[in-house]
Amino acid sequence: MVSHIIKKTFLFIFFLCLFSVTFAYSQSVFKAGFAMVDITPPAGVPMWGYGARHDLPAEGTKYPLNFKVVVFDDGTNRLAVGGMDLGRSPTQRSMEKIIEHVKKDCGVSYVMLVGSHTHHGPVIELINEPDCGQGKFDKAIQYVEELENKICIAISEATAKLTPAKIGWTSEQTDLNRNRVSKKPQKMRDPELTIIRIDTIDDKPITAMINFSAHPVLDDIFDRRWSSDWAGIMQKRFEELLNVPCIFLQGSAGDMSPNTNDQRKGMVGFGNAIGEYSAELYKTIHPTVPTQPLIQFKSERFTYPSRMDTTNSLTMAVYKQGFFPELINALLKEFSNNTVSVTLTTALINKELALVGGSGEFFSGLAIRLKANSPAKKTIFLGYCNGHSLYIPTVEAIEEGGYGADPMFSWVPAGTGEELIDKACANIKQMLTENLH
Question: 153: which residues sit within 8 A by CB, 6+ positions away?
Fold first, then answer.
């Protein structure tokens, strides 16, 4: 009799818990909100991207630099995914400030910020310390503080605009990029162009995200004006055609360059062409309300011994001459003790869409490896995400040699990229097996 009562009580509690979870899930609503802010620096800040410019300051603005962000909400968790017209995403120091602020201010616990990798953006590594920018580059240091504030404000604004949403995507293999490093007859290349469409439940556009891999280096190296390069032109053209806000999320561009031709010539021609192509793909997407609204996220930071001896003063003198001393000194504050650290971020949206971010210039073979092995329905790779750890090449690229694969600009040990990609795939697999809410 007692055992029968215990059994009935256990079953009652079990089904009550099951009902509670199911009810909570049924009440979950997938939401999204978009915001943008102009992050163009003033003239006088050193330009990022080309060693030949050293510390020469920008003289004005050719095309404005913007930060655009979408915040996703599943009723419990919030994720901000932002693209910015900068050579890289904010430093580790800045990322920590931003993440801490938006978590307290608007409940956004998860953040993925992606630099477009334009080579006509500002240096953002300098810090307010002797020989690291203090005194000589105070305008650049002040800009970083303003950048952090603007990013936080935009994320807060996007959160305030959260509305029930639906999501969809499409991808296409293109000839829009080429391998700029390999000399092999059959060169590695990630040709995928992915468009992610986010609408309100009554079919009004919230934003679109474009994921593609190619260096934004089509603007004139000697033009010392701020420029978002082809990536900015692409977004502008897309928005003109559709009246839909567009976020660019750079991919595995370490060894990828734009594949221009007579039909898509130069920065403007290429940017317009890919913007028009993306707009046509966008029209084919039919977003749906997620059946399993859930945001899962994991951020990890791995530290490795540097292939380049950063404690060697003669070696560092070469870098300081090639770029400028304060920049290298500030960089070594982040990568100290002859080590280099890489941030890996893994997000899974609604048990279907996986976003994997790496803090560096990942070679295209690594994104191909990720997409081939990820168990998610759709996976994209975001380079220059949540920091910058220089080049992350494949083992094959290191064996072949060449720019970006050599120790001069790739400090991580051989095999690091593959290790990180395999870790991301394991993260996604784990997330897929975790219970809803």
Answer: 37
Measured CA to CA, the distance from residue 190 to residue 67 in angstroms comes to: 25
* Domain locations in the chain as residue ranges: 31-283, 295-433
Residue type, 104: K
Over residues 381-426, the pLDDT tens digits come to 999 999 999 999 999 999 999 999 999 999 999 999 999 999 999 9
Query: How many CB atoms neighbour CB 311 within 10 A?
Result: 12
Contact 197, 208 (CB under 8 A): yes
Cβ(48)–Cβ(121) below 8 Å: yes
Q: Is 0.85 surpassed by the pTM of this model?
A: yes
C-alpha angle 321-327-333 in degrees, rounded to nearest 5: 120
9-39 confidence digits (pLDDT tens): 444 444 444 444 444 444 699 999 999 999 9
Q: How many residues does the chain have?
A: 437
Q: What is the pLDDT of residues 131-141, one digit of tens each?
A: 999 999 999 99
Q: pLDDT tens digit string along 357-383?
A: 999 999 999 999 999 999 999 999 999
Cβ partners under 8 Å of residue 86, min gap 6: 39, 48, 65, 115, 116, 118, 121, 122, 124
